[in-house]
């Protein structure tokens, strides 16, 4: 699926909707999303398990994510991208023998929006659309690379439910 905005600021989506190998184009109604100075803005909707990326008030991209579980929730609220890190080693130890310990190794495409909380790729699973992280916002590798390249340090990140 690709999102297109024409010169009149109309939103369109192109996708092969009927599986015949040809992309169809549909108009997507919607109001502009206002952001200060028409900045880029990322909205993570926990209830939909979806990330929305806006630029100049218009939807630029959207994809499924996996947010934190009930026991390890993703922090809701208004944040900003604090740092862009091409690689992060996701290893955490809750104590000797804890079943919650994990070590995912170096993971590409990381946007820190709060200390120890990132939007990042999760090559260890493909369950996007389901809550299953330890509080971070997991995406596929291609989606993580896209949002990493889209966002700047200071980009608004709103986590809502």
Widest sheet, order of strands: 6-5-4-12-7
Order of helices and strands: EEEEEEEEEEEHE
Q: Helical proportion? A: under 10%
Question: Which radius of gyration do the C-alpha atoms yield?
Answer: 17 Å
Largest sheet report: 5 strands, mixed
In round numbers, the mean pLDDT is: 87
Overall strand count: 12
Walk me through what this model shows.
The chain has one helix spanning 141-150; strands at 2-5, 11-15, 24-28, 41-45, 50-55, 58-64, 77-80, 83-92, 102-114, 117-121, 137-139, 156-160. It has 161 residues and is mostly beta strands. The strands form 3 sheets. A 5-stranded mixed beta sheet has the order 6-5-4-12-7, with helices on one face. Strands 8-9-10-11 form a 4-stranded mixed beta sheet. A hairpin with a 2-residue loop joins strand 5 (50-55) and strand 6 (58-64). It starts with a strand and ends with a strand. The mean pLDDT is 87.
Short description:
By secondary structure, this protein is mostly beta strands.
Task: Jot down its keywords.
4-stranded mixed sheet, globular
Secondary structure layout plus pairing:
Layout lengths: L1 E4 L5 E5 L8 E5 L12 E5 L4 E6 L2 E7 L12 E4 L2 E10 L9 E13 L2 E5 L15 E3 L1 H10 L5 E5 L1
Parallel strand pairs: 4-12, 10-11
Antiparallel strand pairs: 1-2, 2-3, 4-5, 5-6, 7-12, 8-9, 9-10
């Amino acid at each position: 699926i690709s999102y297109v905005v024409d010169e009149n600021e109309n939103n369109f989506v192109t996708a092969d909707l009927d599986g015949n190998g040809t992309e169809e184009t549909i108009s997507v109604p919607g109001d502009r999303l206002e952001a200060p100075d028409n900045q880029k803005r990322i909205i993570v909707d926990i209830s939909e398990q979806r990330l929305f990326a806006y630029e100049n008030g218009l939807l630029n991209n959207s994809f499924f994510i996996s947010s934190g579980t009930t026991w390890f929730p993703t922090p809701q609220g208004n944040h900003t991208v604090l740092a862009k890190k091409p690689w992060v080693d996701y290893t955490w130890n809750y104590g000797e023998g804890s079943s919650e310990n994990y070590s995912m190794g170096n993971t590409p495409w990381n946007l820190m929006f709060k200390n120890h909380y990132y939007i990042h790729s999760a090559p260890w699973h493909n369950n996007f659309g389901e809550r299953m992280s330890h509080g971070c916002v997991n995406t596929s590798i291609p989606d993580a690379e896209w949002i990493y390249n889209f966002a700047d340090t200071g980009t608004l990140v709103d986590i809502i439910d």
